[in-house]
Specification:
- The protein has about 400 residues and is of the alpha/beta class.
- It is about 35% helix and about 20% strand.
- It has 16 helices and 13 strands.
- The protein has helices spanning about 50-55, 60-70, 70-75, 80-90, 105-125, 130-135, 160-170, 190-200, 215-225, 245-250, 265-275, 285, 290-305, 315-330, 340-345, 375-380; strands spanning about 5-20, 25-40, 45-50, 150, 155, 175-180, 205-210, 230-235, 255-260, 280, 305-310, 360-365, 385-390.
- The model has no long low-confidence stretch (mean pLDDT about 95).
Amino acid sequence: MRIAQLTIYRLQLPLRKEIKHASHVRQESMNVLVACRLADQTLGWGEGVPRQYVTGETIDGAIEQLHRSRLDEQLGKDCFGWQDVIELCEAIRLAEIGEDPRGCLGNAARCAVELSILDAFGRCFGEPISRVTAAFAPAQAIQTNLPVVRYSGAVTAATPAAERWSAIKMRVYGFHHCKVKVGLVDNEPARLQNLRRWLGSRMVIRIDANEAWTPEQAVRNLRAMQPARIACAEQPVRHADVLALKDLRREVDVPVMLDESLTSLFDAKQAIEQETCDLFNIRLSKCGGFLAALRLAALAEQAGLSYQLGCHPGESGVLSAAGRHWLSTVRGTRFAEGSYDRHLLSRLLTREDITFGYGGRAPALTKPGLGVTIDPQALQELAEESNAITIR
């Protein structure tokens, strides 16, 4: 079986509420959606979320890059099993669109294409894409099979009354893990102490500064927040200051997670060599797709680091499903984010609603491919088709 055509869409997903953190404010998410049609007309879907402040990508740049990459000449291989499909995906080379010393320009576009291929062939083979983890050699040491995964809740900066209500709902709803966005208000330590009281003593709380602080501010703030028992601090400084985290880790007894500074294999190797973190925040779109995310998790495991699977607010059910397959087959994932679909999106792209349930729990997906289908009416309302690419 082989690929016959790729169709690229500009996807605009309206959010239920404004999402605000130290790096950006958004009320909608502009995503890249790719449809992969096989020779037997089997259709698969993939999605990427360009974020200029993370990887330097824009929606227009991602679509242009895909059209310039001569994918018609790269994807004409016959595939008879997962190994062939993995080799096909690993061999994709996207057009250069600028200086890319970190190797992350094009990660969202690559993720969209790769997921569409995995989904299409998974449907063709009658197998879920979770089978890819066991078939991908670098990930075999961390492969597992979980029937249920558990996602985190999140608190963003808001009024004290709104935050209190959000925290109490999370506690009542049975969440075990919660992320708190910081860096937007004054007196963060007192805010964290209040949240600790509202969330309860058993809640595992981690914070995400989204590059809000200087190294000096990070040390001062993290020391002041320690009484709230913070499990880890995500991206406390700008990427330009990332090397300062080696000293920060000696001065503050709070584990450090990289996010904006963890976009590629280059970033991961530098983090390990420079000892700048304790955890990786791996996101499928940010890091270049399912296979690249598996490779990063395996590298973290080898280096003695932990990792979480993160997400971009505004992912549709396509990326939510891909994250679910990843989480259910990767051992040792410390925290999980994603499947917020119904809670964040005012219109779902998929017919299936795979939003997590009570306590953040969600079952593994077992249907062929991604296990979700695109709602044609939603596609018509939310997506604008770009030119199709016919594979030679």
